[in-house]
Amino acid sequence: MKQSNLFAKIKKEPPKDATTISHKYLTQADFIEQTAAGVYSFLPLGWRVHKKIEEIIREEMNNIGGQEVYLPALVPKNLWEETGRWETIDPPLFKVRDRHEKEFGLASTHEEVITDLCRKRIKSYRDLPLYLYQIQDKFRNEMRPTGGLLRVREFIMKDLYSFHESQEDAMNYYDKVVKAYFKIFKRCGLPVVSLEADSGTIGGSLSHEFGVLSESGQDKILICKNCDFGANIEKTGEIKKCPRCKEKLEGKSSIESAHAFYLGDKYSKTLDLKFIGKDGKSYPVIMGCYGIGLGRLMATLVEVYHDEKGIIWPKTVAPFLVHLVQIENEKKIKENSEKIYLNLQKEGIEVLYDDREDKTAGEKFADADLIGIPIRIVVSAKILKQDNVEIKERDKKEFQLVKIKELDSYIRNNS
Asked: Which pTM does this prediction carry?
């Protein structure tokens, strides 16, 4: 992608109402733009990051047997009423009425829809276990959306629903999902802690959050440095000592980046989702559900990976791997930059080529630091005389000179 063609207008200053680092940098670098309170448009740079995260999640869900579906965001009132959540779900539903005066709720979660689908299809123990997931829009009627993408009213979530004939099988799969979540966060470059959590209006007898330690986090948690215990204060209250090893607990702020729920028969009993067991008797299906908000994960990455100049994207989720910067407009510089750009593309390397002629070298470097692409390649007259380019990795201070003919292998070895 040539930066002169990129649909992005980088701003000199962040928005005045930005309260978090991620809101500041993602808006200033034109990854996102606020359309209304808690509602954001993703621009090309932001959407590329979002899609990278999406593909990592999709791969790990497929690896544990997930089948991808796509469920409607517009859910009829009668389904919500079957579970009693039309009036009780928190935050409240966005509610709409069609021209026939029928009411719908914009889905903030999909337990009703997925259970309705499965009660029409699951009849026998032979139909179990079953794992269905989607990556889809969700709507939360938040009173005070804040922090950019960290607390919004519309967002994209991966939600996985599992269906089992026994609690034992459900808990075994719960553990599989927890492990898959740790893999997802590791691939994205995020260190997370597993936390015992309150199930809220989703329900069920057991739930865990996956939290990322951050000063901008709105969740207050307690963690034990002696063992792996961690919990949201909402779940444990103001306890002082670890319930496992009795060591003193430490209070931290955390960003909730995923949640796992063991639902048991909460929805299957209410919505009459049953199966015939091997003994010929009827039993309620045992369920679990597991969610990751993609936009929040993206914002959390920025909260963790940044400096005073801008974002520092991990290579697995960066919008491009390479930022090629041409800092002079002489014919020879342009020709060599274009050749490098085309060669990188031919090798399948994702590259953003800053070919803009109306920007100074300083402006281009400032923009590159703000955008945060992992590898920056600079082409200038002085270093080109030795058939070199200058390479600097975004998370390092020093730069080095690399021969143009060795450029491909350098990038391959450092990607």
From this structure: 0.94
The model's pLDDT over 70-101, given as tens digits with 9 standing for 90+, comes to 999 999 999 999 999 999 999 999 999 999 99
Q: Which fold has domain 322-413?
A: Rossmann fold (3.40.50)
The full 3-state SS of the chain, as one line of letters, equals: CECCCCCCCCCCCCCCCCCCHHHHHHHHCCCEEEEECCEEEECHHHHHHHHHHHHHHHHHHHHCCCEECCCCCEEEHHHHHHHCHHHHCCCCCEEEECCCCCEEEECCCCHHHHHHHHHCCCCEHHHCCEEEEEEEEEECCCCCCCCHHHCCCEEEEEEEEEEECCHHHHHHHHHHHHHHHHHHHHHHCCCCEEEECCCCCCCCCEEEEEEEECCCCCEEEEECCCCCCEEEHHHHCCCCECCCCCCECEEEEEEEEEEEEEEECHHHHHCCCEEECCCCCEEECEEEEEEEEHHHHHHHHHHHCEECCEECCCCCCCCCCEEEEECCCCHHHHHHHHHHHHHHHHCCCCEEEECCCCCCHHHHHHHHHHHCCCEEEEECHHHHCCCEEEEEECCCCCEEEEEHHHHHHHHHHCC
Is 188 a residue whose pLDDT tops 90?
yes
- Between 3.40.50.150, 3.90.950.10, 3.30.930.10, 3.40.50.1980, what CATH number should domain 21-307 receive? 3.30.930.10
Span 377-387, mean pLDDT?
94
The domain locations on the chain are: 21-307, 322-413
Contact by Cβ (8 Å): 65, 131? yes
pLDDT at 216 over 80: no
pLDDT at 31: 98
> What number is the average pLDDT over the span 237-255?
88
> Residue 23: exposed, middle, or buried by beta-carbon count in 10 A (0-12, 13-18, 19+)?
buried
Mean pLDDT of the chain: 94
